Amino acid sequence: MESFLDHLECTGCGRTFNADQIHTVCEECNKVLFARYNLPAARNSMKRDLSGRAKTMWRYRELLPVRTESNIVSLGEGMTPLLRAERLGKVYGFHRLFIKDEGLNPTGSFKARGMSAAVSRAKELGIVKIAVPSAGNAAGALAAYGAAAGIETSVCMPADAPQINQVESAVCGSRVYLVDGLITHAATIVAHASAGSGWFDISTLREPYRLEGKKTLGFELAEQLDWQLPDVIIYPTGGGTGMIGMWKAFEELEQLGWIGNQRPKIISVQAAGCAPIVRAWQQDKAYSEPWTGAQTIAAGLRVPRAFADYLILQVIRGSGGVAIAVTDEEILQSIRETARLEGIFMCPEGAATIAAFKRLTNCGLLRPEQSVVLFNTAAGLKYSQLIRLQCPRIDPSDEIEL
Hints:
Blueprint: E1 5-10, E2 16-17, E3 33-37, H1 39-45, E4 82-84, H2 86-92, E5 97-101, H3 111-124, E6 129-133, H4 137-149, E7 152-158, H5 163-171, E8 175-179, H6 183-197, E9 200-201, H7 210-214, H8 216-224, E10 232-236, H9 241-256, E11 265-271, H10 276-282, H11 309-319, E12 323-326, H12 328-342, H13 348-362, E13 372-376
Parallel strand pairs: 5-13, 6-7, 6-9, 7-8, 10-11, 10-13, 11-12
Antiparallel strand pairs: 1-2, 1-3, 4-5
């Protein structure tokens, strides 16, 4: 199976670039580059029946950017379960409510997808040193995939990023730098350091290939629903790569003839303490303004301004969706409720989609007859410090009633 990767295309000015040369963003307008494929050739070659293929995201290898199979760096990422949330759905009157649980990926988050694709392509292009700013999970994923590829990695994250992310990055051999600030400050440090050190900056959407791994969320969702897309997707939005990637995946699937032109409404969820996309959507702006004083327990949502904000807003509006902000209190309550009803320990970003679902259901913007998919982007166990317990302590000789 060969990749049908053809060229890179700027999402701003439309300029094209050679995909077999190293690129970051557009040289003309500094916008995001998309990997483009020879889809007519892929349509003639690929069959929609993918049974028998590896149960990883690389089952879609022809539409991923690695040309030579030996360059694929995989830890078994992708093909995560799409779980029917029956008990939670029953509470709110929904019979087709699903949770796509990305916490079962290697490194415990959806970041594994993007890093598998990006590190594989970096290896193929001869890149030997990679750096990334991260709110936490991307750092751990880069460290793991860099180790598997034999590529040196450095990560820079806020000092208050979850300790597990710091540990998993360090234990995989990455150089870990903590910054007293937000991910935007970490990004500035990485950009300046990379310019003089030879490190390749793999920041969110500042290179073309992390997106390609994330788009497999869309491929899988379509396949798991027998090539029928849901009515609504509710997605937590920090940098927005997953949302943008899925929208790109749906376009590619339509050109293959595997789905029609119907699209889900995309609901973008942010935290009330950091909601630049929500504010830009409400004000009908094409770009967001940086959010000052960003603060939330959901580390992945604490992104004062996404580099690809214009693409996020295009997806929301193009789908007829909305952007909504939820509070940390709603997030914590949703973590407990979903765990109690479904046995799924959601990360705070994933729980934000539960909170948004409940809010939109209560105000009538979601209807019980709709099929709705919520994304849990990481394992809640990585955020266990957020949950305070009040468990009774007992003496071994005490008799208790269970």
